[in-house]
Amino acid sequence: MVVVAGVTGLVVALSAWQEGRESPPPTPASAAPEATPDTPSGRPEPRRTPSPSASAEAPEPAPSHPVRKKVSYAFPIEGCAGSYAAEHHNYPATDIFAAQGCAFVSPVAGVVDEVGTVDRWSASDNRGADRGGKFVSVVGVDGVRYYGSHLSVVASGIRPGVRVQDGVRLGSVGETGSARGTGPHVHFGISWPGPPDQWWVRRGVVAPAPFLDAWRAGRNASPVAAVAEAERRLGPQSGECRQYC
Ligand SMILES: [Zn+2]
């Protein structure tokens, strides 16, 4: 059942959210600014765009239908121009090209899921699990997982379990992993939350471009329904990588 799966994911996300409130870890906003050379000067603090619907102080009860939950979304590149194509090779995802060091921010409030701080990729073996280089994934309050990779650096304080608001800096645009030499960009993937290291799902199962278009225009388009449909269609066979592995 699509709706049941969606609600389950939402409940899991909300549970993680509430657990996080009991002993809140340091947030990126309170952490020291990154000391990396490619941090754009003049923007040491992550942007915060609190809204009543996404307030951490008053999470909404689980709605009867997850698509109707009001969630604020942010375009995942902040402070720099980002360009992207509607299509991606091999599977649904979007490569967002922006200058090296530009801020990659969380598109939604949620909890950091997985973080990769070491670039293990090499061209000789081109292992699928390593192609993302340095990366961060966040499970949003909408129950959807968002993934950005090829980062030059993961932002200070970003680690699994940390609660973030939409617009909080997760890392910096780079070309780690298989993006080496292709020009700095963030590979952006939208998926349902899955087991750790199930990278073939994490890299993307739904085309993000229509949602990026909306978020950039200030509209709160939600991928919840599209992800639920993808999970219904692809979930049963997602236990192993079947394409571009
Ligand atoms: Zn890509």
From TrEMBL:
Residues 29-42, 50-59 have a biased composition (Low complexity). InterPro entries: Dup_hybrid_motif (IPR011055), M23ase_b-sheet_dom (IPR016047). It comes from the Bacteria. Residues 93-192 form the M23ase beta-sheet core domain. Gene3D superfamilies: Glucose Permease (Domain IIA). Residues 16-67 are annotated as: Disordered. This is Peptidoglycan DD-metalloendopeptidase family protein.
